[in-house]
Amino acid sequence: MAKRSIIITGGAGFIGSHVVRLFVNKYPEYNIINVDKLTYAGNLANLADVADKPNYRFVKMDICDFEGVLRLMQEERVDGVIHLAAESHVDRSIAEPFTFAQTNVMGTLSLLQAAKVCWESCAEGYSGKRFYHISTDEVYGALEFDNTLFTEQTSYNPHSPYSASKASSDHFVRAYHDTYGMPTIVTNCSNNYGPNQFPEKLIPLFISNIRQQKSLPVYGKGENVRDWLYVEDHARAIDTIFHNGRVAQTYNIGGSNEWRNIDLIKVIIKVVDRHLGNAEGHSLGLIEYVTDRLGHDARYAIDSSKLRNELGWEPSVQFEEGLDRTVRWYLENGAWLEDIISGNYQRRNNEYLEENKR
Ligand code: NAD
Ligand code: TDX
Fold it and tell me: What integer is the mean pLDDT of 285-294?
């Protein structure tokens, strides 16, 4: 296989760390460069097991730093970008939308323009290059409580500042293909869960709170529906699509695994209580119905038949198994959670940077 040099952005975050791990281990002949600003969501402990691999390099950089990204792409002769860096939490986007426009829109544009300048200035041009943008199902808006699914043809209709910023970035990526001929791909994925997810998102937050016997804030009536996919299945899809997906295409990725929040929460409580040795139902009393999220999308559900039929991908981890693995991971990695709760992980990030100064 040809030697490739690939930038993965946002590799210190949740999904990015699983993608980096998969690529570093599966493709020892590739040069994998993790570009991450290390915002509150970036945690280098997520990648401790691959940090010393010879085909891996971490670069602390803001994707909005166009000059820095361009220099890095030229120095490393980058021929592929897998772009995950983003502000990713809907609640934060409601409170601080500017950061979302800056990173998700301007940051994506900065990466696209750096790739354009870098690739157009080399002899082979866009040949053998690929810019792969990771996006979300939330750009499609919200579904009714029926059997409809988001397909690749569903019109964009984002509601939150987060999904609006992701929608905008998706449009910029497609514009770079249509205008300049850049070989781009966009994928839109449903809710991910698994190890290393920052404990602000529903599943890790609730596992963490049950562990501490703290209250479980259910937004509204808990009737909203999400389609959950185990994070390693998303990483496998990204691998498949990066290598075999058709340029200028969009692929939807989903788990075909819809859960009403309140039903999911009751299952989480059951599994965590079982692992903690509590009697069944012990932590049900922690449920607290709170004011609904503003603009809370009713239902997301993905039709991933294009990806399944064209590239043969399908989820491999059944939900019961995935949730059990996830709960066990958080309970067995209490120190990882504690470091985030105390803020210690940011000190550890800085220590890593000091030790690895070039
Ligand atoms: P995350 O919040 O866990 O991680 C984001 C990472 O990006 C962090 O390491 C952070 O430090 C880095 N980052 C943020 N701003 C940056 C900047 N300006 N420059 C460089 N790095 C920066 O996110 P996640 O949940 O792993 O999501 C990754 C991607 O997948 C995002 O693009 C998100 O929109 C998309 N996505 C997420 C889900 C999900 O369920 N989590 C579902 C579908 C799509
Ligand atoms: O405390 C909570 N209580 C609650 O009821 C939290 C954090 C969430 N919720 C609800 C809101 C949603 O209906 O649970 C559901 C899931 O919430 P999040 O984990 O915040 O995910 P969501 O808003 O669905 O967005 C996620 O999936 C798509 C990711 O955060 C996005 O990055 C991704 O694009």
Answer: 98
